[in-house]
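User: Hand in any protein.

Assistant:
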Amino acid sequence: MLKFKNMTIENIGPYAGSQTVDFAGGDGVIIIWGGNGYGKTTLLNLFRYALFGYFQYRHEKVDDILKLVNIEGRKVGKYDIKVILRMSHDDKSYELTRQYTVRNGISVPSKSDDYVPDVFLKADGSILPNAEHELALIMPENVSRFFLFDGELLQEYAELVKSETEVGDTIKKSIESILGVPILTNASSDTESVYNEYRNEWSRSAQANTVTEKYASQIQREIAKKEEQEQERDRLQGLLDEEEEKKAKLEEDAKQKSHLSSLIQEKQHLEEDISTKEAQRSALIQSIVVDTKNIWRYLLGKQTSGMLSKVEAELAVLQEKHKEHESASHLMSYLQHIVTTHHCECCDQDVDEAHIAVLEKRLKEDPGKYGGLTPEEKQHMKSLQVQQASLESMHTSIEISGLKAREDQLADLLVQIDDAKKQLQDTKDNITRYGDIDDLAAADRKNTQELGKCYSKIENYRDGIKKTNDKIKTAETALASLEEKVRKAGISNSDLSLDAKRAALCQAIHQLFTDGIDEYRKKLRNSVEKDATKLFSSIRSDPDYAALKINDNYGLEIVHESGENVPFRSAGYEHIVALSLIGALHNNAPLKGPIIMDSPFGRIDPKHKENIIQALPTMSDQIILLAHEDEINAQTARKILGCSLKKEYHLVKRNSFHTEIEPL
């Protein structure tokens, strides 16, 4: 079984400098935590680059080496990139090195041709002469989807329940490859070739016999027709393969452009959001500045409030005395008027002499407390009024709790702006990977036109292959009839009879392989169905989902306890079924190795996430999970996995171009 020991990364993607992540520590699960844009997918692709020699971005190979070089490294003149993967397989220790180094004589590379690619593979310390061949035996590329995958790749497994889809056919071939079926199909093809040789030899012997000569000539013509149709079928199949490859690339380009359009929209949204938040920030700062201009008054006002109260109290006494004097003076003036006029205007009556005498006496009496303020009191009242005005000026209507709330709001807003700017920079970095985007609309139209042509050609090629296969079957039927006539006519000829027996024996052996392959496939499907159902049952939360049922393409349907297949299953259950299939394949495959999965939980609810985490150790001896804490809860994962959790790492983003892998 293949197991990874550690991997050293030098100057690739967001990983500046030289960094090593250790995978040793026994069978179990290793979790590498990191947020979006921190480099989880890059790590997944680094395994792919090390094992298969190419780097992939969104299912498309990256040909521009300069895009892989760490930007911080470029700034200090470091342009070489390297990955060293140390692993064990069948009791051997391997050290795999892949690197791109700048060609001699070039100081600053500007294109991929400025680099020299190298691969070195050591087995137990000795360099192997044919590294790629050895790697293909350790981990064939055509089965990599079962060892290196993300949530998007899991979604493709839904194609297996459909009939005659390109993606479904590709996955089926990969499944049969990991299960060892090609060994038998290759043997079947070899026996068919031997059968055709003996068949031709028998036909030539029949031509030399006068009794069977006429049949043999017809056999040769039918064989020629059959071979011509087989060549035509192979030609059409080649064209179909080319066109499907072209279609896949165009469809991927369409996805890329769709993703690019989403990135551009996201960039515009982020820019608008940042602009809005920066306007809010400016308004808040202005409000805070206005308030803080008078904050000294607020602080002094707090300290002088007692003094102001005392001044106001003294001033109130003097003002009350002054008010009473004013009222008394007004009354005395009115009384003097009555004495002078002998008439009261309030009641409009004349006043007799007796009452006038009483009033005159009252006017001559001492005013007492109504005599008004003394000169000293008047001066003191003016002084108190000045003090009051001064002390009141130190008080402000500012609400200190409101100021604190605005300061907190500003702090939160600054964090939001900073996060949005980082996200904007990451989005811009992703956009720059697409190169020139000025003519995006024209490229979209051209892509759509080319796809239309591809679909038409593919349909024509498939129809042509079907018609050609019908002609081959017709030729086979004619050949069988003619060969039967040769057998009967040449039964007395020992040499001819021997050739016929040899051909018949080869045909029987070939049929034995054909029948054996069918039986082996049936056995494999039953075993995969059983193991997938077991894993599915440990993950699914709906007890009414009783089992999984496999079809000829290895697609899995969910079976209800009533026996009915569950239609229109959710995207989350698509992922659960796909993970169940992968676990079952690992259990039945002769080739076993680590599983590296990148964020496979996106469409799955919390309960199913917990169930999947619990099932991880049963899927393979070594699981490397790349995830972020918004996807699965770290404490929950640790509790569920227990001693099966061997190591944890955290991707720390120092800046947009520098991520470090730190152990927890």
About this structure: The mean pLDDT is 86. The CA atoms of residues 215 and 482 lie 6 Å apart. The radius of gyration is 46 Å.
